[in-house]
From TrEMBL:
The lineage of its organism: Eukaryota, Fungi, Dikarya, Basidiomycota, Agaricomycotina. This is Uncharacterized protein. InterPro entries: Peptidase_aspartic_dom_sf (IPR021109). CDD domains: retropepsin_like (cd00303).
């Protein structure tokens, strides 16, 4: 089992099938945008709806798949649309090669050799969860949103502090009246001192 666009789907790993295939029913269910292949792909009759005669595929979609535990996500991959496929997606040789997945039939493993994740034996999803990959643009957008929210919260706190201080000054004005302990500056004495300093400097 794997997921696409947060939709749980069935996936078949088949290193004998060169392309990665996706069911036309799943494409319709997920409302995926299809694009035409440069050249139609002919496949054997085993994939045809009636099981007889070759089948020609002409469209594809691009998507990535995510493990149910959200600890592994594939690279963006071309999936060729196959009508009435008997499973949601087939992860063929192209998919396995692009994602560096090594199949070991004896040990029944399908391991991503870059990170060691085993698609056939995923860890317990309750032990650890890794968030899905995000693009740099999405990360910058989330950071900018967080900064704006923090600035807005700070402005509100500053307003509250200003209001509280203003109310306290009005309510307890005597506590903040320091006029009795404040003396007027002696400007005459300051001028006299400065003149004496300049006179001594000239001598």
């Amino acid at each position: 089992m794997t997921s696409s666009a947060r939709t749980l789907i069935n996936a078949l790993i088949d290193h004998g099938a060169p392309p990665a295939l996706i069911s036309s029913g799943l494409v319709k269910k997920l409302n995926l945008q299809t694009r035409p292949l440069h050249r139609p792909l002919g496949i054997s009759g085993a994939f045809s709806p009636d099981g007889h005669g070759p089948l020609e595929l002409s469209t594809f979609v691009r998507l990535s798949v995510l493990s149910p535990c959200a600890q592994w996500q594939s690279r963006s991959q071309i999936f060729i649309v196959c009508p009435d496929l008997h499973t949601d997606v087939i992860l063929g040789l192209d998919f396995l090669a692009k994602n560096d997945i090594v199949i070991d039939a004896h040990n029944r493993t399908a391991i991503d050799k870059k990170c060691g994740f085993d698609l056939l034996n995923p860890p317990d999803p309750t032990l650890a969860r890794v968030p899905p990959k995000t693009t740099p643009y999405a990360r910058r957008k989330a950071e900018a949103k967080s900064i704006k929210e923090g600035q807005a919260a700070t402005r509100e706190l500053r307003k509250q502090v200003h209001f509280e201080l203003a109310a306290k000054f009005v309510k307890e004005a005597k506590k903040f009246d320091f006029s009795a302990n404040t003396t007027e500056p002696d400007f005459v004495g300051m001028v006299r001192t400065r003149i004496e300093q300049l006179a001594s400097a000239e001598v």
